[in-house]
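request received
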Amino acid sequence: MANFYYPEKDAVLEEVLAAYDFPATLMGAVRYGQGHINDTFCVLCQPQEGDCIRFILQGLSLAAFPHPEELMENFIGITSYLREIITQQGGDPMREALSLVKTRDGKDYYTDGTGKVWRLTPFIENTDCFQSATPELFEASARSFGNFQHMLQNYPAETLHETIVNFHNTEDRYAKFEAALAADKLGRAAGIAEEIQFVQDRKADCSVALDALRSGKLPLRVTHNDTKLNNILIDRATGKGICVIDLDTTMPGLSINDFGDSIRFGANHAKEDEKDLSKVNFDIDLYEVYTRGFLEGAQGSLTPAELEYLPWGARLMTLECGIRFLTDYLDGDHYFRIHRPEHNLDRCRTQFKLVRDMEEQFDAMAAVVAKYAR
Ligand code: ADP
Ligand code: GN1
Ligand code: MG
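response:
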């Protein structure tokens, strides 16, 4: 196999690719995307005539997803359901939903010698994936995520596995933070007193959404749970969100968290790991365009209580993500892929800055929801 870019684990990639029957000459694979968890590659095949045919190959992180076969069961169930709905609505199921390429022996995915699961999906061409957005793109992603929720509202949630247990259980995230702090494996706690205090001051907040769930105020739905802007493919021709990707954490959850995670990532103009915090500011105008798009996409499927709690979704997803980055920093950076020594600490700080901003503008956030509630 020629032209491979796979510095660390060449042999594994070769083994995985050999499990598939490609439609044209296999040219190579390159690392692709900006994900923090899985190993994603773009695989290139060159036919004798015409353009390259591309695929996305992903190795699932066993550290994050301890039961990848259950995750793949969810993936197959959800994507086939979405393809049916999209077909009924006159859409293009191969462009608007993910699908799998089978292995040579007819399996939906390949398990390598180490137990790691790999899946191959056709590359959805003529789309873009953004790390930061214009208001128009952000609104387009909001419509897609709102519509995702709407399309899955009757999906049999009980058939879904919990791919990461307690994924958005903010109380549990808090408890894990306290445990990492108590262990302080690398002696890092001494240097981050301010961040520790920030989390501890917000312990009660960690229960707000869960209390509402327990009391029956908020319903459990099928949710995506990782609604970053870069988990939507935007159609290059129309500028519309065409496909929701990264379905690994799609499972029963709260709609306010899907809303909230998008706001966390997209309603500001800085990168998630920006070191200069003066550049990190919650942008209420972007929050407004997202709210409008999300509620349009959801087409009235949210209850009054869900609408009321949307601003909490934003605040809590941002706080929780910051807590997760800080916990991983205390723990020795085992979960999120890092590219510099204090990367997780930098990421945590941007999240906490955004939480502060949202706390200050919380009434305005509620007023925006009221304006677009339907
Ligand atoms: P991660 O869990 O690592 O974030 P994703 O599933 O989001 O993995 O994929 C990483 C990136 O790969 C995406 O942000 C997107 O740019 C690209 N991507 C994933 N699947 C496809 C696809 N089927 N077609 C085109 N691009 C894709
Ligand atoms: C991870 O895999 P990726 O990069 O889309 C994480 C999310 C975090 C996000 C922070 C399975 O998402 O929960 O919000 O990083 N995914 C998992 O950027 O833990
Ligand atoms: Mg992703």
